[in-house]
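[Solved] Which block belongs to which protein?

Original post:
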Amino acid sequence: MTAHSAIKNPRTADHPIHAQFTSRFSPRGFTAKTLTEVELLPLFEAARWAPSSSNHQPWRFAYGLRGDAAFGKIAESLVPFNRSWAEKAAALIAVASRTTVEKDGKDLPNSAHSFDAGTAWGYLALQAHHVGLVAHAMGGFEADVLAKNLNLPEGYVLHAVVAVGEHGDIEKLPEVLQAREVPNGRLPLSQIVAHGGFV
């Protein structure tokens, strides 16, 4: 039984939207399938076209493919729970952004850098879903370890590590994770949207 046939999507949109938004989710199970750089680069290409404040494009990505040294450097930074499943992914991607912008020869704070990096990650995730892959972003990593391992430049901050690969069978996950391998719900619009002011 494949992962996709075993999982039923309980999500229902209240308003008409493209199916990609309700069918994409962040599982933890991966197959043994590897990815090549050629297969991974379209995900970064999608992220490249994300909108950003004044088109500064502050996001940066560093990646490793399972089995290579770069993958090991990223995996080493993950907290034990995340590492237990994420190192089975085909690729690991670190997401960072530059906190300043250069203007008139000076580095000035860019208050939108994390907002923009998050948008780029969202584009990457949707492109992964579009080509039949899954992408799971994690905040559970040791930033100092990851920064050192990847030579993070001064003026940049790390936001997440993303595990990417082909979705694997639920049965191969530890029992404690099997129940979580389903698309989760979202708050109703009434709790997040209001006309004329915030809820």
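(Second protein starts here: sequence line, then its structure tokens.)
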Amino acid sequence: MAYDEELAARVRAVLRGEPGLTERAMFGGLGFMLDGHMAVAVGSSGEGLILRADPAVPSDLLGEHVRPMEMGGRGPMKGWLAVDSVRVADDGSLRDVVGRAVAFVRTLPPR
């Protein structure tokens, strides 16, 4: 597989029991969807996560290991953060960032 299977298993454990959870292979990674909305995606080994965030609120997560997501040289994508693997190396940090994505996605209407 192209994505980091160990990180995917850790994300899967955090999301276990979430209503409306599905997984979808996309862009060489693995997306975790809640009621049709991607909440988090796992990239290739060492790449980390793509995280859904409220585009209307500046994220306090931004810092050395978290930055606005950029895809295809089009500049930052509003509402998406790139999270380096080192930022989610321990389970508490992973639960924190995934929990924030879940909280935001739960404000969106189901698809």
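Accepted answer:
You had them paired correctly. Confirming on the second one: The first strand starts at residue 21 and ends at 26.
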